[in-house]
Specification:
The complex is a heterodimer of chains A (about 120) and B (about 110). Helix content of chain A is about 0%, strand content about 55%. Chain A has about 120 residues and is an all-beta fold. In chain A, strands 2, 4, 5, 6, 9, 10 and 11 form a seven-stranded mixed sheet that branches. Chain B is mostly beta strands. In chain B, the strands form two sheets. In chain B, strands 2, 4, 5, 9, 10 and 11 form a six-stranded mixed sheet that branches. In chain B, β9 and β10 form a beta hairpin. The radius of gyration of chain B is 13 Å and the shape is globular. Classes of the chains: A mainly beta (about 120), B mainly beta (about 110). Chains A and B meet through β4 and β5 of A and β4, β5, β9 and β10 of B.
Chain lengths: ~120, ~110
């Protein structure tokens, strides 16, 4: 298995532009998580899905952020419009349901820079 | 609110030293406490602790959980420059599949 695949690896964009981050979870993993990591705030959970349904989006910062999981093999995190404070590394992780943290596999992350 | 607090936030030691990283938490019910190592990319799994007082070991790394005092420690003996990384502690609450991370300890080992 290729693991959790995220794209792009790096994204540099201008303030106000739309940004879309993509994630392909491990086949058979029912839960998918989007995290954001900064030096100041550490690793924060933005949203998580179980069986393609959003379960907890309480970490989504504001209406500029949205996430979708149209099928079991693909998810997107969109920021529109982007702002410099959105600059961070965004990680996607997946796990089989019921295994919690033990089953987590992280993608390599997308480093987003908004200028 | 569930919380995981790690200390120190950063640490610089010389190669060969022993370090102890701390993790305290406020989570009512959880399945496990987890430790991860993060170098340049994604966090990688180190340990899962479920029972109080039982030490887990992997080479020079070891960890233990104290459910009464609500903390865990991660020890690294005879440190090497390859141990330089951010070490993350996380709790896995029973109620769902998400895990809650601390902010991490940034460890730098000087040659």
């Amino acid at each position: 298995d290729a693991g959790v695949i995220q794209s792009p690896r790096h994204e540099v964009t201008e303030m106000g532009q739309e940004v879309t981050l993509r994630c392909k979870p491990i086949s058979g993993h029912n839960s998918l998580f989007w995290y954001r990591q900064t030096m100041m705030r550490g690793l924060e959970l933005l949203i998580y899905f179980n069986n393609n349904v959003p379960i907890d989006d309480s970490g989504m910062p504001e209406d500029r952020f949205s996430a979708k999981m149209p099928n079991a093999s693909f998810s997107t995190l969109k920021i529109q419009p982007s702002e410099p404070r959105d600059s961070a590394v965004y990680f996607c992780a997946s796990s089989p349901s019921g295994q919690g943290g033990y089953g987590y596999t992280f993608g390599s992350g997308t480093r987003l820079t908004v200028v | 609110e569930d919380k995981v607090v790690q200390s120190p936030l950063s640490l610089v030691v010389h190669e060969g030293d022993t370090v102890t990283l701390n993790c305290s938490y406020e989570v009512t019910n959880f399945r496990s406490l987890l430790w991860y190592k993060q170098e340049k990319k994604a966090p990688t799994f180190l340990f899962m602790l479920t029972s109080s007082g039982i030490e887990k070991k992997s080479g020079r790394l070891s960890s233990i959980l104290d459910k009464k005092e609500l903390f865990s420690i991660l020890n690294i003996t005879a440190t090497q420059t390859g141990d330089s990384a951010v070490y993350l502690c996380a709790l896995d609450p029973i109620r769902d599949d998400k895990i809650i991370f601390g902010k991490g300890t940034r460890l730098h080992i000087l040659p």
